[in-house]
Amino acid sequence: MNHTTNQSVLQTLGWNEHFANLFAPYAEQGYSVGRITLEHKRIYRLLSEHGELLGEVTGKLRYEATGREDYPAVGDWVVITARPEEKKASIHAVLPRKSKFSRKAAGDSVEEQIVAANVDTVFLVNALNNDFNIRRMERYLILAWESGANPVIVLSKADLCDDLEQRIADVESVAIGVPVHVVSAERGEGLEQLAPYLGCGQTVALMGSSGVGKSTLINKLSGAEQQKVNKVREGDDRGRHTTTHRELFQLPDGALMIDTPGMRELQLWEADEGFRGAFDDIEQLAEACRFNDCQHGREPGCAVRAAIEDGSLEKARFDSYLKLQRELAHLARKEDARLAAAEKDKWKKITMQARSKKPKR
Ligand SMILES: Nc1nc2c(ncn2[C@@H]2O[C@H](COP(=O)(O)OP(=O)(O)OP(=O)(O)O)[C@@H](O)[C@H]2O)c(=O)[nH]1
Ligand SMILES: [Zn+2]
């Protein structure tokens, strides 16, 4: 492959100048680059200028990793040496992420797990039928603002809604400045509004609870025939067909869609910035409180309570603000405890090493 073909293959995967600059020092040393489409037990599927490869991280990367977040995630650009004849690659490094969605890793450990990286736009999907939930939307907005991707609200199942105006007004009251689009995937209505986010090389992720219509939407955006769009059929060496699962895949118009199970059930992870972004209205009100550290309880001169009393701030939104704030504070305390334990552990190891180096008497 000549240089221009390589570049154009990468561009269809979302490569751009930003990543090219980060990659430059590696390029000089002869490394290639790939984009992760699937992770399973630390085996990675990736797309590259050499086609699709199975990747494994090098011992050096593993050695230098301090936590799960240092390993590749779906959507990551990784520095590789490719062995195209074996369809394999060694993964040497992960390029710094432009955006990332994190959640607490499963189990008791308090560890960050990245479920999607380098997402340009996240579609926050909420159904307009009985499942409609404005409080859930606030939670998704925190995650979106924290991630660094641009949130876009997609209100689905428009065909099942008869008070559309009211619903849109409700959404706009919590999603200040966020684009809102109303669609019915089933009827194929409103989907053209999503086109601007789905240009060639753009990466889009879907977030929304079970049953809101994410799969239906993906199917519609992928063209009608494909039932399960993230299952791509392809021939293997023996000419039989095998089904390959991917969590990052290309839509016909050239966008990259990320649909990981992790995105579908994202729990809050540390999100101070995201919290401030999602509750910018309340944060701004709070600036007018008499006391800097006003808790908006019984303090005199509280601008937030005044806004609730005069009806300009909804009580339910304020309650939600407090609840999410508590949840994040709880998470932060657990994380602090984990860091303290890790620090203690480290010193224990160092002390033990020092002891073992002492000459035996
Ligand atoms: N009336 C109506 N029904 C829809 C629409 N979109 C999806 N549905 C239906 O809603 C149900 C759930 O849709 P899915 O696309 O499977 O939802 P999902 O978000 O992918 O759900 P999970 O896979 O559980 O996360 C299905 O029965 C769809 O047929 C729509 O625009 N209108
Ligand atoms: Zn106050």
UniProtKB/TrEMBL annotation:
Signal peptide: none
Any one cellular-component term (Gene Ontology): cytoplasm
Compartment(s) of residence: Cytoplasm
Keyword terms of this UniProt record: Cytoplasm, GTP-binding, Hydrolase, Metal-binding, Nucleotide-binding, Ribosome biogenesis, RNA-binding, rRNA-binding, Zinc
Residues binding Zn(2+): 289, 294, 296, 302
Catalytic EC class: hydrolase
The protein's Enzyme Commission number: 3.6.1.-
Gene3D superfamilies given in the database record: P-loop containing nucleotide triphosphate hydrolases, Probable gtpase engc, domain 3
Segments traversing the membrane: none
GO BP annotations, alphabetical order: ribosomal small subunit biogenesis
Domain EngC GTPase residue range list: 117-264
CDD domains: YjeQ_EngC
Keyword Repeat: no
InterPro entries documented for this protein: G_CP_dom, P-loop_NTPase, Ribosome_biogen_GTPase_RsgA, RsgA_GTPase_dom
Residues annotated as binding GTP: 156-159, 208-216
Presence of keyword Hydrolase: yes
Protein's job: One of several proteins that assist in the late maturation steps of the functional core of the 30S ribosomal subunit. Helps release RbfA from mature subunits. May play a role in the assembly of ribosomal proteins into the subunit. Circularly permuted GTPase that catalyzes slow GTP hydrolysis, GTPase activity is stimulated by the 30S ribosomal subunit.
Subunit structure: Monomer. Associates with 30S ribosomal subunit, binds 16S rRNA.
The family this protein is said to belong to: Belongs to the TRAFAC class YlqF/YawG GTPase family. RsgA subfamily.
Protein name: Small ribosomal subunit biogenesis GTPase RsgA
Organism: Brevibacillus agri
